[in-house]
Amino acid sequence: MSFWDDRYRGADYLFGTEPADFLRRAAPLLAPGARVLFLADGEGRNSTWAAAQGLRAEAMEPSAPALEKARVLARAREVEVTLHQAGIEDWDWRPETYDAVAGIFIQFAPPALRDRIHAGIARTLRAGGLVLLHGYAPRQVGYGTGGPGAVENLYTLDGLRADFPGWEVLAARDFDAEVAEGAAHRGLSALVDFVARKPG
């Protein structure tokens, strides 16, 4: 059993069933019916909520137990989400496929893999498409309220801008807030929001 299978095998939803507050904030930027890919979406709290808002939601996630819980959540919300069992390391970033790509707390990726993910996002977005990234800032390591212990995995706004050069930045925030998302994300957290539009 993989690390993530082990984390997701319990009956409870590890991060809860409500979407990240970031997704609620960013949703008004998404056109009705937009095709949105959610990266490493776990138990489906974000993709199923997006589908309930009228978006064409797809989610990729390597963990079979997490995907089964996402299916249950989609049925409960009476929505359809296209679910892909796949790891982000070998995801097929098909060119110009999505209107938006969302990565919400996906900071398991060390810098080299993060570079590949961001290049893949740029490739798979259509012209004018949006990247939506939300995660922890480096000072989160000292807070101990969630996320990886590897500071190099965490986001800075300068680093994100550098990864998407020439893109129109629609939201860029580095802030502290109380988070209550299931058992795994709880307490004062150092957060980063980043939304940018692909040129063209």
TrEMBL record:
GO terms for biological process: methylation. The keyword Electron transport does not apply. It comes from the Bacteria. SUPFAM superfamilies: S-adenosyl-L-methionine-dependent methyltransferases (SSF53335). Residues 36-129 form the Methyltransferase domain. Its EC number is 2.1.-.-. The keyword Nucleotide-binding does not apply. Transmembrane segments: none annotated. InterPro entries: Methyltransf_25 (IPR041698), SAM-dependent_MTases_sf (IPR029063). Gene3D superfamilies: Vaccinia Virus protein VP39 (3.40.50.150). GO terms for molecular function: methyltransferase activity. Keywords: Methyltransferase, Transferase. Pfam families: Methyltransf_25. CDD domains: AdoMet_MTases (cd02440). This is Class I SAM-dependent methyltransferase. It comes from Ruixingdingia sedimenti. The lineage of its organism: Bacteria, Pseudomonadati, Pseudomonadota, Alphaproteobacteria, Rhodobacterales.
